[in-house]
């Protein structure tokens, strides 16, 4: 069990280690797993599968470790309930090392820290909450490893992993009330095929919770939701195959909500998807919108909150990879069908605070399946902004790098009376004028 803690270890972690195991002033929870497993419990297969290398307690090393798994699997350890005795802001420090599969292009397997307060659903510690040793944010996890697909999480190899060095990750958990009950969750998630070696994929040496009222405020949550209808057991690659089904549009087999403008990718075969709701931009301006899907897809935008006014603004002719809004592959290079700039080169004017009905359709036959749309606001009215690489979403708590341009909702957002009076029909008229002009 002798082991050297070195590398860049924060003051918080050093303090924690030097004072273990008795909690010191400011610290409300210290667990180094040296005298026992800390009362943490293992659950395998949240979302899908059972891993071949679930979380295991190592008395010899004084750690919890997960060697990884293969076949769309995950494994979590949950802390026992931790009482927060006094109100205040909490910092979480985790001393750990990890080695998750990343081929340099795609981050396949991952680990993420989540927490639950007073028995509510676990939510991720978001990338913006880390003060040190956080998740990489250049790419989200794209492996078929629910429930981390599309999110930021620990991936690749922590510094000094091969030399048995543990690094600190320190996160701002935000404001707590006296008497709150907190649980921590460490979720490892793996896709099919390769498991990075050497094991373990994740090993946790110590955990500390500490009061720190100098922590910055976390970003406010702005929940987003769109309706996601699934029409099962329909073969064919074409939107016309979906439209030909008696189930479409009013009798989907499954209806869910999603928090960003994307359906969970790679979930099934022989189905149709409809993603619908309202986009309410924060800023007035000229927008361009984009879609990508596998297989064929269509994307509609209304001039207002009325679905009857929706018009086709983009479509996916065949299929493309998840979120690939920019490629010209399987699209007309001279006039890419998947972007509104082809049908509406002058852009689409949208008014701040006005809810616009949006609807994206996809028809999956086999193989991969995905559907997403996004938007960009022009800074120069004459020039489209760079094509986004992520879907829309207003909440930073998606932990997914979504493009935040406004709210996504399943019902129109009520407008303040002043905005209704100021902008009643002008944006719709402008867009309808553009449509009419282009139709000639
Ligand atoms: Ca893997
Ligand atoms: Ca330990
Ligand atoms: Ca499929
Ligand atoms: Ca497909």
Write the layout of secondary structure elements.
Elements (H helix, E strand, L loop, with lengths): L10 H9 L7 E5 L9 E4 L11 E3 L4 E4 L6 E6 L3 E3 L3 E13 L9 E8 L5 E2 L5 E3 L23 E2 L9 E10 L3 E11 L11 E10 L14 E6 L7 H5 L10 E5 L12 E11 L3 E10 L2 E6 L7 E7 L23 H4 L4 E3 L5 E9 L5 E8 L28 E4 L7 H7 L2 H14 L1
Antiparallel strand pairs: 1-14, 2-5, 3-4, 4-14, 5-13, 6-13, 7-11, 7-12, 7-14, 8-9, 8-13, 10-12, 15-16, 15-17, 17-22, 17-24, 18-21, 18-23, 19-20, 19-22
Bound molecules: calcium ion (CA) (4 copies).
One calcium ion (CA) binds next to loops.
Determine the N-to-C terminus distance. 77 Å
Mind telling me the C-alpha Rg?
24 Å
Shape: globular
Order of helices and strands: HEEEEEEEEEEEEEEEHEEEEEHEEEEHH
Unique bound compounds:
calcium ion
Q: What is the CATH architecture term of the largest domain?
A: Sandwich
The pLDDT mean sits at 89
Level-1 CATH class name of the largest domain: Mainly Beta
Structural class by sheet pairing and helices: mainly beta
Work out the helicity level: under 10%
Unreliable stretches? 1-24, 418-440
Number of strands: 24
Largest sheet: 8 strands, antiparallel
- Count of helix runs: 5
- Provide the CATH topology of the largest domain: Jelly Rolls
Q: List the domain count as a whole number.
A: 2
Strand content: 25-35%
């Amino acid at each position: 069990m002798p082991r050297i803690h070195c590398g860049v270890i924060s003051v918080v972690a050093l303090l924690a280690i030097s004072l273990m195991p008795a909690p010191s002033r400011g610290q409300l929870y210290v667990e180094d797993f040296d005298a026992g497993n800390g009362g943490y419990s293992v659950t395998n297969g949240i979302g899908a599968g059972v891993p071949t290398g679930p979380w295991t307690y190592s008395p010899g090393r004084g750690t919890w470790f997960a060697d990884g798994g293969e076949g769309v699997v995950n494994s979590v350890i949950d802390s026992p309930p931790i009482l927060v005795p006094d109100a205040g802001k909490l910092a979480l420090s985790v001393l750990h090392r990890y080695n998750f599969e990343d081929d340099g292009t795609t981050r396949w397997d991952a680990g993420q820290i989540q927490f639950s307060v007073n028995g509510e659903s676990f939510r991720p510690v978001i990338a913006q909450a880390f003060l040190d040793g956080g998740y990489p944010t250049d790419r989200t996890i794209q492996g078929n490893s629910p429930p981390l697909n599309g999110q930021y999480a620990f991936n690749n190899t922590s510094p000094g992993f091969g030399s048995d060095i543990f690094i600190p990750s320190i996160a701002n958990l935000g404001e707590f009330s006296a008497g709150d009950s907190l649980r921590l969750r460490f979720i490892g998630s793996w896709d099919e095929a390769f498991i990075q070696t050497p094991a373990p994929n994740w090993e946790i040496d110590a955990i500390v919770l500490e009061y720190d009222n100098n922590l910055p405020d976390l970003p406010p949550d702005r929940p987003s939701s769109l309706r996601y209808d699934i029409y099962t057991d329909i073969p064919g690659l074409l939107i016309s195959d979906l439209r030909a089904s008696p189930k479409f549009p009013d009798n989907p087999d499954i209806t869910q909500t999603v928090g960003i403008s994307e359906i969970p990718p790679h979930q099934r075969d022989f189905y149709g998807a409809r993603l619908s709701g309202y986009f309410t931009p924060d800023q007035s301006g000229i927008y361009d919108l984009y879609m990508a899907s596998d297989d064929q897809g269509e994307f509609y935008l209304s001039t207002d909150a009325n679905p009857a006014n929706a018009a086709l603004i983009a479509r996916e002719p065949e299929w493309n990879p998840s979120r690939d809004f920019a490629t010209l592959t399987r699209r007309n290079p001279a006039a890419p069908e998947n972007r509104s700039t082809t049908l509406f080169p002058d852009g689409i004017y949208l008014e701040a605070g006005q809810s616009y009905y949006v609807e994206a359709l996809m028809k999956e036959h086999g193989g991969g399946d995905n559907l997403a749309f996004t938007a960009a606001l022009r800074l120069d009215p004459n020039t489209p902004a760079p094509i986004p690489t992520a879907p829309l979403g207003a909440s930073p708590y998606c932990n997914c790098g979504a493009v935040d341009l406004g709210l996504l909702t399943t019902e129109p957002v009520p407008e303040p009376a002043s905005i209704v009076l100021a902008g009643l029909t002008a944006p719709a008229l402008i867009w309808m004028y553009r449509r009419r002009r282009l139709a000639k």
